[in-house]
Design a protein that fits this description.
The chain has 440 residues and is α/β, with parallel strands linked by helices. The chain has twelve helices and 21 strands. β16 and β17 form a beta hairpin. The longest helix has 22 residues. The structure holds 5'-O-[hydroxy(phenylacetyl)phosphoryl]adenosine.
């Protein structure tokens, strides 16, 4: 299913020609309208009018989150703030917030991108879309909402939280598509089951557009089974555009990048050279038609890889794999690099535990220590000491053999770990020196 077949299925040559045309205009636009880019292109000795091929993008300097912070709030915008129509911002929990703008054109593009993702689920304008991403400066709620508007489908603007009500609405309104984070989808599913429903057979919901955080294959299956939905992973980020930069089609094998609006590179984070197709690297994105706050070569810190070959769904835009994590989420446990999503994949193999877990980092003496708390299922009997020790041993052995890591494992009772209504907090960092394990 396509929303804009003429764009989504265009030949790769035609797509590249479109990208080149847009890139040429965008480079000049940024140079002329944004002081930051004027200076940075001059410093790098780049003439924005010299672009001849898409590969010329490699000559341009990167933009990083700190650049947006240094130019807080509106210093990276290409127009006067009063000429934009919407502002979004990152939460700023790890530093100064980054502020981005959208004109009507930018909002239309965003709506189209999300509407393509709705079409990938097989639904059309008759669908009922329940948005349980948070509404506000976070891009999840309004981004999905804009997609519903563009698709012309009935949109239920729930925002996140009030899980009991989400379930009631999902049932009574006969929601077809749920849009929220994977951890919140699982939370909703568990709560519905606790209330005595079997959402898979009793609710109309058949698709879920889930993103904003990594989700292991096992957790995804659990959501699919409990809710009776097909999960479509969706990617986006406040700085570049909210949800809709890339999304999974019905094949559920990789996320098609909206390549008519974004030029994507996947680079080795150390050498900054493109990685070969199929190898993991950092996603770097360039806006091709953003008016309010375009970015050139934005280093996302997100890790993915290009999937080779044509997709059977017919969409010609390239696919990236589901994100492995972020370079700055990567933990180095006694010299071994590991992402929380890899730990999740291992622990969710065990039927005695749930996908609710937390990694707690602390300082012991002069060393960093890692505790992994995992919640058990309600039927698990903590009085059976041998059973508890045996499960800990088996999970520990699996972590060791799959990821070569050794952690201090704690099994905790159901509901000991706070449930997420948005992005789950998987890592709690209580270390004295926090950046000791920071990724590349
Ligand atoms: O999370 C935008 C969004 C909202 C995407 C709703 C999808 C759905 P930020 O809060 O700026 O924006 O966080 C962006 O979240 O750089 C990734 O590290 C992570 N992220 C986003 N989508 C995915 C995904 C929104 N599908 C950061 N899988 C990004 C894994 C994701 N991580």
């Amino acid at each position: 299913m396509y929303f804009q077949p003429e764009i989504e299925t265009m030949s790769h040559d035609a797509l590249e020609a479109l990208q080149l045309e847009r890139l040429k205009e965008m480079a000049v636009y940024c140079y002329e309208k944004i002081g930051f880019y004027h200076r940075s292109f001059d410093e790098a000795g780049i003439d924005p009018r010299s672009i001849e091929s898409l590969a010329d993008i490699e000559k341009f300097p990167f933009t990083v989150k700190q650049d947006l912070r240094d130019n807080y709030p509106f210093g990276m915008w290409a127009l006067d703030k009063r000429d934009a129509m919407r502002v979004h911002a990152s939460s700023g929990t790890t530093g100064q917030a980054t502020v981005v703008g959208y004109t009507r054109h930018d909002l239309d593009v965003w709506g189209e991108c999300f509407a393509r993702d709705i079409a990938y689920t097989g639904h059309d304008e008759h669908a009922i879309l329940q948005v349980c991403y948070g509404y506000g400066l976070f891009t999840g709620g309004l981004g999905a909402d804009g997609g519903g508007l563009a698709m012309n489908c009935l949109t239920v603007p729930m925002s996140s939280g009030n899980t009991k009500r989400q379930i009631q609405v999902m049932k009574d309104f006969e929601t077809d598509i749920l849009a929220c984070t994977p951890s919140y989808a699982l939370n909703i599913a568990d709560k519905a089951i606790e209330e005595g429903y079997d959402p898979a057979s009793e609710f109309a919901v058949s698709s879920a557009i889930l993103g904003a955080e990594p989700c292991s294959e096992n957790m995804r299956h659990e959501i699919e089974n409990k809710l009776g939905v097909k999960v479509h992973d969706i990617y986006g980020l406040s700085e570049v555009m909210g949800p809709g930069v890339a999304c999974e089609c019905a094949e559920q094998h990789g996320l098609h990048v909206a390549e008519d609006h974004f030029l994507i590179e996947i680079l080795d984070p150390d050498t900054h050279q493109p990685v070969p197709e199929g190898e993991w690297g950092e996603i770097v994105l360039t806006s091709l038609d953003r008016e309010a706050s375009p970015l050139i070569r934005y280093r996302t810190r997100d890790i993915s890889r290009f999937l080779p070959g044509a997709c059977p769904c017919g969409v010609t835009h390239r696919r990236i794999d589901r994100l492995q994590g972020r370079t700055d989420d990567m933990l180095i446990i006694r010299g071994v690099n590991v992402f929380p999503s890899q730990i999740e994949q291992v622990i969710t193999e065990f039927k005695e535990v749930t996908p609710h877990y937390q990694i707690i980092l602390s300082t012991k003496g002069s060393l960093d220590a890692v505790e992994l708390d995992i919640e058990t299922i309600p039927e698990f009997d903590f009085d059976e000491i041998r059973q508890v020790e045996d499960l800990k041993r088996r999970i520990g052995a699996e972590l060791k053999s799959n990821l070569q890591i050794k952690v201090d494992l704690k099994l905790v009772a159901p509901h000991d770990i706070v449930r997420s209504e948005g992005k789950a907090k998987r890592v709690i960092d209580n270390r004295e020196v926090k950046n000791a394990w920071e990724g590349k």
